[in-house]
Design a protein that fits this description.
globular; 11 helices; mainly alpha; about 210 residues
């Protein structure tokens, strides 16, 4: 039910389908030649649990149907009109961001926030891969991060590459768990602490002067 509400609240909630499906398979299936038969056979309660796995996707479909019923334009039009984004090859914005970081291209040239968004993207990529090795017995966390990152990298824009990407990092809780573990090293702990303080001051000042902080 929480997955359904997550998808109704924000489209990214649908990615919960994959980790939920994995945990359902891990706990209730894994039998037979293809490792998909249930332990003890199918019964009504198990069917109900299997159906619940797809609630986030159902929430996404309900949201789309509700928008259509209201007569609102497709989301693709909204993204194209307001954020100049379209669905592209995941990660293509990284190449566009590199050009903008050195003053080339047409999007966000020389912007500090572009550098920050690029760094955050690399951090999320690294910690997502790391999560698969660090928690091989808890793949649900890594699958969640991988699906969320895939969905976040789908939009592509020539004018605003990686736009507002840094704020999406808040949803990557596996990244924060891994950074907390790294913080057990004193030098890494100070690096995280000092850089966070500097960024807090910078973005607070940006917010104070009505600048775009995400």
């Amino acid at each position: 039910m929480l997955g359904l509400l997550a998808a109704l609240t924000r489209l990214t909630g649908w990615v919960l389908v994959v980790p939920l499906a994995y945990h359902f398979w891990e706990r209730h299936l894994g039998q037979g030649k293809w490792k998909i038969d249930p332990v003890g056979g199918w019964h009504p309660r198990l069917v109900g649990k299997a159906t619940a796995v797809f609630l986030p996707m159902i929430g996404l479909l309900l949201f789309m149907l509700y928008r259509s019923w209201l007569g609102l334009p497709p989301l693709s039009n909204i993204y194209a009109e307001y954020w100049f984004q379209r669905t592209g090859i995941p990660g293509s914005d990284l190449l566009r961001a590199l050009r903008g970081m050195v003053g080339l291209g047409t999007g966000r040239a020389w912007e500090f926030t572009l550098w920050f968004d690029f760094f955050i993207t690399l951090l999320l990529l690294a910690t997502t891969v790391w999560a698969f090795f660090r928690w091989h017995n808890k793949l649900g966390w890594a699958l969640y991060a991988a699906m969320l990152l895939f969905f976040m990298l789908l939009p592509s824009s020539e004018f605003k590459p990686l736009y507002s990407f840094s704020r999406y990092a808040l949803a990557f809780f596996p990244t924060f768990f891994l950074l907390a573990e790294l913080g057990s090293n004193g030098k890494v702990h100070r690096l995280i602490l000092y850089s966070s303080l500097v960024l807090l001051l910078y973005f607070s000042a940006q917010f104070f002067i009505w600048g775009w902080v995400a």
